[in-house]
Amino acid sequence: LFYSSRNDGDSIADYTGTNNFSEEYKTSLLYELTSYQNSLTDQGILLCLFIPPNKESVYSDYMPTRYIQCEETRTDA
Known about the structure:
Number of strands: 0
Order of helices and strands: HHH
Structural class: mainly alpha
Shape: elongated
Strand content: under 5%
Largest sheet: none
Helix content: 25-40%
């Protein structure tokens, strides 16, 4: 059973690669995370970021054939 509701994100779009982040957004996100990391480092705190894969990627063998997995997901990017 794969979740196709869009109420809390669109995991199918993530899987198929139809909602990729823009380059501007990725640059902005990198800047924000780097700033946050530097702030924590100044306090002697190590930042550890964990982004778990969605189940569509983990169980891709069980996905309906109408969905084609993209080569690079948003998580990969």
